[in-house]
Amino acid sequence: MPVTILPMTVAPPDRLAQPGRSGIARWCARVILVVVPFAAGSVSPARSQFLLPARTDVPVLAPPKPLMRADLPPVERGERAGTGFFVDEAGHVLTARHVVQACGRIMVQKEGRTSAARLVAVSTPYDLALLKTAKTRGLAATFPRSVASAPSGIVFAADYMNLPTSLARGAMLANASVGTTNGSDEAGHIALNTNITFGASGAPVLDSRGLVEGVVSRKTAVNRVLAVGASGAKAFLAASNVRLQEDDRPQISGSASRAHRAASISARVICLN
Amino acid sequence: MGKLRALLASVGLITIAASPAIAQGLDYRSPDAAPPAWGQFAKLVKYRFEEWISADEAIANRFRSWLKETNGTQNGAPASLVVKAWLNPDGTVERVSFAPFKDERANTDLRTVLTRGNIGEAPPPEMLQPINLRFSLNLSKD
Q: Is the CB of B121 less than 8 angstroms away from the CB of A253?
């Protein structure tokens, strides 16, 4: 911005010598420097003093942005999510059937990577579904060769999305105990005393050896969850020609965190409509 | 992108074996003879190393470019590379060792890539280290 420096104005000498004035006061009295900024050639009309648009100005408005699907909350997008886990080296993921029923698209998400999944098979007697992804991410689960989940055994099962919270707390050995099943409706299942909640459907139930003893299916009461037992899961996988890993030996050391192993084999399963 | 995928797909670890810490040569213990927990952990290390080498970031990209450019030449990487890895109890990689390439920057890049992350699990406390991993570096110029 151009500035104009006006000439200094010097007071008459007789007034400069007046006693009782400080040096600064004298200096101010002697020298008056006035700087007046102005815009060269901007002799402006009255209307320019107001920040108002001229009559001919039309405010430019951005075109309305269409509401994207991603802007909507997951429920309104018709999206639901559960947990699944890899069961072989070929990218097969086992999850709960109700997580992936009637989905337009199925995605599997793990450690920041999302990949499309294809529904390969659903179980009729059990709440199980098999998905196929391009690649196994992390580790494939190992099932017990001989299934024996004794009541009062302690196990670990968690929603994939909550696993980072568990891992942040450090090693976690168990968050559930095996209870007793009731009646023929629950045959082939294991009952868990646990407070795991939404999003855990399809999660693996890991025992102290790091073996999958079940697949989380549904909540039946407060702090009671049913999981499809390993026998049913293995039969379903075998019928789907999945080469699953079976072993009765520990897959983790006795003191190892089952939460960390769960994170290594699990993924988030997302159903898009 | 297709070329990148082909390149990534061709970088892999083909065999894994755990060997005692005192056996520093290529004296592998058969994975079948090791406890399953060791084998599972070694598989996880393999997966992480593959992911880190395949990552779309500057150093990994530069290392893969070097592999591709020098593939089949005297200055290039061997077709098979054995990497020894020492893991900390928290799952981080303490150090890795491998027969050095002729290109010092490639050595540094691979070392950086393989030691930058966390495996995600703690190594079994009784597991002998280092873990020996054999890479198959089958790269083709396209």
A: no
